[in-house]
Amino acid sequence: MTMAQPASAQSYASQRKTVSHWKTANPLFDAIVGGGSANTKAACIIAAQIEEDLIGRSWPTGTIYGSETHLESKFGVCRSVVREAVRILESRGTARMRRGPNGGLLILAPSMSLVLEAIDRYVTSHCRELHRGKDGKTILQAVHARLIGPGAKNCVGPALASFLEEMISAVNQHARQGPSGRIPLGATVESARSRAQHIFRLLMKDLNSSRTIDRRLGSELDLCDRYGADRDVLRQAVRVLEFEGIAESVAGRGKGLMTRTPEPAALCRLINCYFTAARVTPSDTMSLFKLLSVEAISIAAEDATDEELARLKNAQRLLHAADVRVTPKVMQEAEESQFGIIDEPLVDILLRCTKSYSTWWSSLRNPQSEQLDIIYRTETLKVISALLERDVTAVAAAQAAKVERLNGLILNQHRAVSA
Questions:
Q1: What is 9-111+186-266's CATH number?
Q2: Mean pLDDT in order along the chain per 10 residues (419 residues)
Q3: Beta bridge partners of 258
């Protein structure tokens, strides 16, 4: 039995088109985090756009974004799609629909416990534990010592310091206790109020029982029967999975709800939402990114295999080619050829979210701008050259210089916008 389709596939396609026209894109964020084909359902697009709009408005916690009727009109979609989008936001702790005469979509500050839950789901969906090996723990501890430890030369605000300490605590707990040390599902009661959230957590329990990618969980009718849910409630729960990229409803005989390996965009945006609500500054996150990337690239210089060195040489050839622009695809390949050597999903997501955070405040949104092209190409070639020579000292210095130059470009654009 196949996954039941909406009453009108054409109407959903037209709703996606309507929603997409409203979007104010941040292509530099997408280039950094690797925005891909996930989240193509109308409800997923709406939820992402609301979060991006709130980041741009410095996260007005406690205000009402709009009523259900207002959201239907604003995005040009039906009520069921709006409710699916709201369930996504509620699952992430970024908003909640408040009923009553003065009700509407209430903006919330996402909690650290929900962020940790989302990170755990992302990492374990990559068929790995939260702490895969020694590299992730080593990098986090080194960064902590240099950023906020005794005698630290760097200085960041308390919100980012707390974020890093919570991350280290979660990794240490998992290292000590194994799977029982994971952040438990349902740790935050506020996120499990609705029936859809309860179904989502039952689906996650089934997903955690097997890490096989492209595994079929069942058709819509199968799942409704299994969990005792009506179709609308099940679809709301499924949209949360699709938004995170953990699963996707696929039409066709023998298909249905299929497991997937998630892309990092949704999780990076959630962490950026947390940073914004906590009033973390772009300069603080860039300080954290600099230290994370220097520690990671230093380990990569020591651990790179012959196959990984060959990939680095290919990225070097691309960047040396004068007629090749630094497109998002080229940028992603160059970054992954360097930091993919570590093969730590947790480190990877922290690098992406901290690097991308400042893009929301900068007027530099075009990943193919001439200034960015010149700086990125020049500095990345220096990093790759040092990696190929396995020179740990040189690669650390080159990465630090690269971050400083890119940070200067982005933050100068930020100051220009603020002036």
A1: 1.10.10.10
A2: 38 49 72 73 94 95 96 95 95 93 93 91 68 75 85 81 91 67 45 76 79 76 91 92 88 78 92 97 94 96 95 95 84 93 90 94 84 93 97 97 92 55
A3: 216, 248
Q: Tell me the three state secondary structure of residue 404.
A: helix
For 280-411, give the CATH class.
mainly alpha
Tokens matching residue 269: 């945006």
What is the DSSP-derived secondary structure letter of residue 259?
E
- Find tokens 């740990």 and name the residue: 392
Task: Tell me where in the chain the CATH 1.10.10.10 domain(s) lie.
Answer: 9-111+186-266
For residue 64, what is the DSSP state? B
Q: On the CB side of 18, how many CA atoms lie within 13 Å of its CA?
A: 17
Q: Where in the chain is the domain with CATH 1.20.120?
A: 280-411
The pTM score is 0.88
364: left (phi over 0), alpha (psi -120 to 50) or beta: beta
Judged by DSSP in three states, 143 sits in helix
Q: Nearest-CA neighbor of 235 among 207, 269, 203?
A: 203
